[in-house]
Amino acid sequence: MKGNLKPAVKVIMHNEISMDGAIQHFEPNLELYYQIAETFKADVHLVGSRTAKMGLKTYWGKIPGEEPEDFVKPLIKSWDKRPYWFIPDTRGILKNLLHVYRKSGYCKDVVVLVSKRTPKSYIEYLKGRNYDYYSCGRDHVDFHRALRLMRVNYGTRVVMTDSGGTLNNILLAQGLISEISLLVAPVLVGDKRANLFRTLRLKGKKPRLQLIKNRIQEKQYLLLIYRIV
Questions:
Q1: Of 11, 86, 105, 227, which is least surrounded by CB within 10 A?
Q2: What value, to the nearest 5°, has the Cα angle with vertex 187 and ends 181 and 190?
Q3: Residues 202 and 146 in one domain
Q4: Is residue 4 part of a domain?
Q5: What confidence score (pLDDT) does residue 55 get?
Q6: Global pTM value
Q7: What is the pLDDT of residues 25-39, one digit of tens each?
Q8: Is the pLDDT reported for residue 133 higher than 70?
Q9: What is the 3-state secondary structure (H, E, C) of 157-169?
């Protein structure tokens, strides 16, 4: 497909932040965060490769070795409502780690987005374990193209980005985010904070935001959802 046509996919950026905009160095309310995420009924979770790797380090500890079933593509049932996890990983930093997510129970399967410069050894790793993968760009992932293939190949209508900031800011800068969902935690991080929008570079006309939901959660958290107009 040619041209810069916006794909018919709703993309929701969902993050938990501190009162001063940090995404690290505080204890996230994961139960509440994922309860809210489930209400979006996303067909795909788009997860940055660095975020995925950090999640393994933080929550899994020692990574188990691969077993024979890790080389087999899961059989997807028609009633399975779990999302696919799409991970852009052009540098192959998740080599020998993807099996943890494949059998975590959180997703139907993992799909990897690569580029023409992705190491051949990583492509062979994906082929050998029967992962779906797509080359979507020369160096970095072309997310316009990636969203179109999600729609065409997987029937995707709603995508939720669950990332540490870099991926979200790329999608925002390219005009691909439909809504921004922020769960604001009652905590201040201070000087060492890594701000959610620290790498955001907007060119041209700035997007307008329309508040469509503000709700107090568990008496002390605040959920804000904005539509990008």
A1: 105
A2: 105
A3: no
A4: no
A5: 84
A6: 0.91
A7: 899 999 999 999 999
A8: yes
A9: CEEEECCCCHHHH
Is residue 180 within 8 Å of 171, Cβ to Cβ? no
For residues 169 and 162, what is the distance between their CA atoms, to the nearest angstrom? Answer: 12
List the 110-114 sheet strands across, edge first. 132-135, 110-114, 84-88, 44-46, 158-161, 10-17, 179-184, 221-228, 209-217
The values of phi and psi at residue 88, to 5°, are -75, 120
Cβ–Cβ under 8 Å, residues 201 and 186 = no
118 and 62 within one domain: yes
Q: Examine the pLDDT at 2 and tell me if it is beyond 60.
A: no
Among 156, 184, 215, which residue terminates a domain? 156
Report CA 149 to chain centroid distance, whole Å.
16
> Does residue 193 have a pLDDT over 70?
no
Helices (H) and strands (E) in the chain, counts: 6, 9
Q: Which of 126, 156, 186 is where one domain is finished?
A: 156
Of 165, 161, 157, nearest in space to 197 by CA: 165
